[in-house]
Amino acid sequence: MAGFASFSCVLLISSVLLASYACASEVELDYSSIPIEAGLSWDFHDSSCPKLESIIRKELKKIFKKDIGQAAGLLRVHFHDCFVQGCDSSVLLVGSASEREAPPNKFLRATAYEIIDDLRELVHKKCGRVVSCSDITALAARDSVFLSGGPDYNVPLGRRDGLSFATTDETVKNLPSPNNNTAVLIDALALKNLDATDLVALSGAHTIGLAHCSAFIDRLYPTQDPTMDECFAADLKKDFCPSEDSKNDNTTTTVEDIRTPDKFDNKYYVNLVHRQGLFTSDQDLYTDSRTKDIVARFAVNQELFFEQFAKSMIKMGQLTVLTGNDGEIRANCSVKNSDNIKLKTVLEEEEAAAELK
Ligand code: HEM
Ligand SMILES: *[C@@H]1O[C@H](CO)[C@@H](O)[C@H](O)[C@H]1NC(C)=O
Ligand SMILES: *[C@@H]1O[C@H](CO)[C@@H](O)[C@H](O)[C@H]1NC(C)=O
Ligand SMILES: *[C@@H]1O[C@H](CO)[C@@H](O)[C@H](O)[C@H]1NC(C)=O
Predict the structure, then answer these.
(1) C-alpha of residue 229 to centroid of ligand 3, in Å
(2) Is 88 annotated as ligand-binding?
(3) Nearest to 264 by CA among 119, 71, 82
(4) C-alpha closest to that of 310 among 91, 116, 29
(5) Spatial distance between the Cα atoms of 143 and 204, rounded to a whole number of angstroms
(6) What does the entry list as the binding residues for substrate (predicted)?
(7) 327 pLDDT above the threshold of 70
(8) DSSP three-state, residue 4
(9) Quick check: 45 and 130 in contact, CB under 8 A?
């Protein structure tokens, strides 16, 4: 169950800080000045799969028309992929003790994995097995942002897929917890060459999507976090997190952005300014002196947020990528090729696609 109708008391004050409405648009970035990892390029698939980006966008448009929530699921998968062992699609692999099964990935949406593999199938039917699941995941994340109302931006391409997944320990170590404060998050992101501005901008992804009570219950029980707006806390307790036992509730969810839950905009920062951020990791960004001003600026200037979000996503999307002859191009995003008994069929598919060209 997801809902926000009950947040009526917070909506009353929602328009105080609004900057002018900005349309979803391509942000103006000087792509020539953005650092690109060796082996990646903006036009990597221009001749090998010219329709790649339109195939993905068209399909996702159809999917989101039915359920815009899928955008949040796809965006989060890209983040969880990149933070653990780099953007190599390791999170997509099935297997015992896989990344997928590690606690921080417990609530990644099963549908997100399915959508990525369906996109892969569409792309490979058209172009042959030339585009990695990692590139497809990065493009799906970009389109999730854009099709939810956020900025459009270019994604450097040429990633290859990893041959193994990380251990549970590595997965836990590399993914931040919602209970962590800004100091911890700044240190954690610094290990990935992401700075405080990247942290604030990337956290803005919580402008869409859902969360389970377990992620913020420590802010409600046994004592209520004084940095949380009382009215907001009361609404959360009433409808989503009625008792300490709610931490075991794996089905009830609440929206992450009470103002515009499905729209990718800067209201996440407006929430923080009103002490209506859901996680400690969110709200503390408006407490810590290193990040408070950045939050305040994004809350009144959506364009500034969009531009920085695009830059930070391009950065995050290049974390420890495999390129060239490293890794492989998976024929099925959930399994590495040598474990894929259906690979032969896929090779035949590829030949058929080549003949069609
Ligand atoms: C900075 C540290 C971050 C922490 C601690 C964090 C933590 C979380 C948690 C606990 C949830 C809710 C999971 C659940 O209970 O179901 C969540 C959801 C989400 N996160 Fe983050 N996150 C962080 C950064 C990011 C980044 C960088 C992105 C993407 C760029 C992102 C995108 C999302 C999205 C879209 C959702 C909603 C997922 C859905 O509805 O399926 N998060 N995050
Ligand atoms: C981050 O939060 C997790 C989960 O609550 C906790 O185990 C960990 O110690 C925190 N990290 C730091 C460095 O405090
Ligand atoms: C929720 O998931 C956890 C861990 O996967 C499990 O221990 C717990 O029993 C589940 N709770 C419910 C209510 O299903
Ligand atoms: C991909 O692999 C998964 C896991 O083995 C399997 O369930 C799925 O059917 C495969 N998909 C295709 C299109 O072969």
Answers:
(1) 29
(2) yes
(3) 71
(4) 29
(5) 16
(6) 176
(7) yes
(8) coil
(9) yes
Ligand 1 centroid vs 144 CA: distance in angstroms? 14
| Spatial distance between the Cα atoms of 294 and 96, rounded to a whole number of angstroms | 41
Task: Confirm if 100 and 94 have CB atoms less than 8 A apart.
Answer: yes
Q: Is the distance from the beta carbon of residue 202 to the nearest atom of ligand 1 less than 6 Å?
A: yes
Cα(180) to ligand 1 centroid in Å equals 13
d(CA 38, CA 317): 13
Average pLDDT over residues 50-61: 98
Report whether residue 103 contacts ligand 3, using a CB cutoff of 6 Å: no
Nearest ligand to the CA of 103 is: 3
Sign of the CA dihedral running 172, 143, 277, 246: negative
The reply, when asked if residue 253 is annotated as ligand binding, is no
Distance CA 125, CA 203 (A): 35
The pLDDT value recorded for residue 340 is: 79
pTM: 0.93
How many whole angstroms separate alpha carbon 14 and alpha carbon 271?
8
- Which of the residues 45, 80, 124, 274 is marked catalytic? 80
Is the pLDDT at 349 greater than 80? The verdict is: no
Q: Assess whether the C-beta atom of 281 lies below 6 angstroms from ligand 1.
A: yes
Distance 332 CA to ligand 4 centre (A): 6
CB 8: neighbour CB atoms within 10 A?
10
Check pocket membership of 193 for ligand 3, CB cut-off 6 A: no
Nearest to 312 by CA among 2, 24, 1, 34: 34
Q: Assess whether 78 carries a catalytic annotation.
A: no
> Is residue 23's pLDDT more than 70?
no
Q: Is the peptide bond preceding residue 222 cis, with omega within 30 degrees of 0?
A: yes
Residue ranges and CATH numbers for the domains of the chain are 1-24+177-316 (1.10.420.10), 43-175+327-357 (1.10.520.10)
H-helix or E-strand containing 251?
none
Quick one: which H or E segment has residue 253?
A: strand 253-255
